[in-house]
Write a structure and sequence with these properties.
Blueprint (H helix, E strand, L loop, with lengths): L12 H12 L11 H6 L6 H12 L6 H8 L6 H5 L6 H15 L4 H14 L2 H13 L6 H6 L16 E5 L5 H4 L2 H12 L2 E4 L9 H5 L3 H15 L9 E3 L2 H7 L2 H4 L7 H10 E3 H4 L4 H4 L10 E3 L3 H6 L5 H8 L4 E2 L14 H4 L1 H16 L6 E3 L2 H8 L6 E3 H16 L1
Parallel strand pairs: 1-2, 1-3, 3-4, 5-6, 5-7, 7-8
Helix pairs in contact: 1-6, 3-6, 4-6, 11-24
């Protein structure tokens, strides 16, 4: 794709990156076949190829309109198109650049600005989000069905192991996961403790930065990234990995090195943090031999929903379901397992109509497997799917933790 960038961005780091991405695109259109919003709306401008044209026009100096902004907003950033693209177009990075430029040129309506401000300030701060969530959960019976759908059932925190081990790993606590599903990190800590690894969280680490970044407060997102790097830095020489139990966070932390590459104070540190980052499903298969004797085989089948941020964002596939099968679990995959469930961070709150269509389509596919339980690897997907079904939805590590506990109980 030939480009002629406008002076405002030509020769800048963003411009150089965007130009290299645009030049890689050969207009083939394979991406439209796996784009969830294109499948729902059938509009070329709501598919990756059309959005690439829109971004190209913006970067070449064409007028920017609210319509341009809407088409870019509707993108889930699931990055399925990146897995499909034969030319290796890094669409996700191009979308970030295009959205940033458009955000500066098009003023949003007051209600939209308020909604986005509340989301980025309220959800990215654990100290604000968790109390607000608890109040909502108490008042849940009094709320409208739409609001009730957004509130997960109350899940209690469970004990965290206290035994020290020579092998140590950090874990990101995050922003919404501690309130919505506090058992996930505790379960990961217990499973790793069982194989001789101590998992711990750095006290000052918080939101990974994805929430603000993808709401187009990109500098605010980078501030969160810098704070996490500062929180983790004292431990980097004593840990084997920084473990992610939420694949959405993992996809972002793995890009710290790229997103802060032009920050002279943080570039090298960010690159090292990214290099240390691993999804939990990449860590535990190495301990399969130790886990197998500890875990009681699960009698019920499960269907695994691979999050987009894991299979497309991080290009990690087959790890979680492979480990579960090795531990004796009947793991099934649904049709269209490559497609997004519609959660996509704050997308389900900003574009509920499209999000719910994708959720219900995904739940139909999951139900067709006949499995009585759904497991996934990202808190956003778990909460979103659970809002539309009575079938239990949990993180796959909670299943492994329960299998170990059941085995111990059977041996008592």
């Amino acid at each position: 794709m030939q480009t002629n960038l406008a002076d405002f961005i030509k020769g800048t780091p963003q411009g150089d990156e965007a130009e290299s991405i645009l030049r890689a695109c050969v207009h083939c259109g394979f991406c439209t076949a796996t784009c969830p919003t294109y499948q729902l709306l059938g509009d070329e401008l709501d598919g990756p190829r059309g959005r690439i044209y829109l971004i190209k026009q913006v970067l070449e100096g064409a007028p920017v309109t609210a319509s341009t902004q809407l088409h870019l907003d509707r993108c889930l950033t699931c990055r399925n198109c990146e897995s499909t693209c034969p030319s290796g177009v890094r669409y996700g990075r191009l979308a970030d650049i295009g959205r940033d430029v458009v955000e500066r040129r098009v003023r949003r309506s007051l209600p939209d600005r308020i909604r986005r401000y509340v989301l980025k300030e309220g959800m990215s701060r654990k100290a604000l989000f968790t109390p607000a969530l608890r109040i909502g959960q108490v008042l849940r019976p009094l709320l409208s069905p739409a609001l009730q759908d957004k509130l997960p059932p109350l899940r209690r925190a469970t004990p965290w192991p206290t035994r020290p081990h020579a092998r140590r790993m950090l874990v990101l606590d995050g922003c919404v996961q501690p309130g919505m599903a506090p058992n996930i990190n505790a379960a990961a800590a217990r499973v790793l403790d069982a194989v001789g690894v101590q998992l711990f969280a750095a006290p000052r680490a918080g939101c990974c930065g994805a929430l603000r970044f993808h709401l187009n407060d990109q500098e605010g997102g980078r501030d969160h990234m810098r704070r996490n790097i500062d929180a983790w830095w004292p431990y980097v020489d004593e840990v084997e990995a920084i473990v992610m139990t939420a694949s959405g966070c993992g996809a972002t932390v793995r890009e710290y090195g790229h997103l802060l590459a032009h920050d002279p104070a943080y570039a090298e540190k960010a690159a090292r943090i990214s290099a240390l980052t691993r999804d939990l499903s990449e860590i535990l298969p190495a301990f399969e031999g130790e886990l197998a004797p500890l875990a009681q085989r699960s009698a019920e089948p499960v269907v695994y929903h691979p999050p987009c941020t894991l299979q497309h964002g991080q290009q990690v596939r087959g790890k979680a379901e492979g480990l579960l099968r090795a531990l004796g679990v009947d793991v099934r995959l649904c049709g269209e397992s490559h497609l997004c469930c519609g959660s996509a961070g704050t997308y389900s709150l900003l574009h509920p109509e499209l999000s719910l269509q994708l959720r219900d389509r995904k739940l139909e596919q999951l139900a067709e497997t006949g499995a009585p339980r759904i497991v996934s690897a990202n808190i956003g997907c778990i909460g979103h799917l659970q809002s539309g079904t009575e079938t239990p939805v949990e993180h796959w590590i909670e299943l492994v933790d329960r299998m170990i506990r059941d085995s111990r109980s059977a041996g008592d």
